[in-house]
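During the reporting period the student researcher (J.K.) took over the structure-prediction task from the postdoctoral fellow and processed the backlog of single-chain submissions. One of the processed entries is reproduced below for the supervisory committee.
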Amino acid sequence: MFLSSLLLGGLFYHHPLVAVPLIALVALLYWLVKHNYKFWEIDGVPYPKPSLLTGNLGPSLTLKKHISELASDWYNAYPDKPFVGYFKIFTPAIMVKDPVLVKNILSRDFDCFANNDFLLDVRQDPLLSHDPFLVTGERWKRSRSLLTPSFTGAKIKQLFPVMESVADAFVTFIGRHVAQELEAKEIAARFTTQNVVACTFSIDGDCFGEQESEFRRMGRRVFETSPMATVKTMMAVFLPTVAKYIPVPFLLKDVDEWIRSLVANLIIQRSASEKTVQEDLLQSFLKNREKSNATQTEITAHALTIFLEGFETSSVVLGFALYRLAKSPEVQQNLYNEVKKRIDANGGQLDFDALQQLEYLDWVMLETLRMHPPAATMHKVCTKKYIMRKGFRDEQGHDMSIYVREGTPILIPVLAIHMDPKYYPEPHQFDPERFSPARKVTHEGATFLPFGEGPRMCLGMRFAQAQVKLAMVKLILNYRVTVGPNDKPFAIDSRSFVYQARDGLRIVFERR
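J.K. obtained the following structure tokens:
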């Protein structure tokens, strides 16, 4: 810094005329940025004060806060406003708070907000370019149509025996670690990875061994990136116009090669075999290949999508569910009583229909998702000009609406809505019975969004709930779960886009 100042000082001393245009340019840029930051003030929309170079995203860019925590700060700072302006670096953006507006954006007026706010270069990431969460337009429609048949209730019911077999193996694995302190999300990820691999490929993922399996290792690798890809990921979320000029893929080369090789070899084996092939998710893609005209790249991409989204977010939910049960012995006992009663009434068997009939289990699941939604914020972008109306009044008391320009980023603060006492009294208390028919209160609009809503709602919702519920039932039948001796209040991991605990969740299992 000193050397730079010295060199500039020398330059200006010997060439004073150079200083004039440089100073003028800096002054102009400063004025343009400051003027840009008056955007919401001119529109009469409340907004937190931006920083000069990072807008309102400084705490997230510097990893001091998770974006959901930052959004919660804004949400609580303007309690009576239906929406709040903010600056995504230099870009004016809107955080929508009002549940009716949220529902309109996700459902009724979906055509005006059809895309998620994430820029993906399909040339750099040919496999991710078929993930319906990441892509747009016709590519999104095709990806969704190809994946939808894999997640029907009938398909999940068909896969249930496979899932139960994996859950029983999970119980055995936990039995080898009774009375040991375990990290909830890590053991949950072992189960969800093993289950997704079994349901997708009909192979043993070896996730319950003492050594880290190939599938667990590659599952971790998917979420690792090169230094430049990390920068690109940050830019794709916060500054998409810059991200498109960074010519590196998000998916690491070895992960891309691994999944392509895995799927290609399985297809060859199944084509050559005369044995009856298990009706897993890969086989569903292959059976529909002729009708859908799906390429092998598309089939591989969808297998990757199911692998990624099937194990990661579900492991977060299962980990938090076990942790909350550990901290709530009464809730845990109520759940055990319901499960034991239902299974005894079903001749000692747990089938798919019996799982669906466990009401208290459903409440535990919903309450976990309310307090710990894996997607704690939703990021949309305006795709058609839009007039946003919802009882907003300026300082003079005039009812206002705002014109939302095409390309405007839209943030939906899922966690903040879930933790709003207007919708969920005593929101920090883990209380599954708030979802019981006797106490459940229906609010206008969208106030429960763990899987999103509307046409872009999570496709794997049924599968995710089934595997998490099944694991909970099997574990609670066989073990009590308590908090570990090293338990401490957790912080949200600001380095992760998924909502998860930074330093883990410590639990201990005891035999019943």
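The committee noted the following: The chain is about 50% helix and 10% strand.
J.K. will present the remaining backlog at the next meeting.
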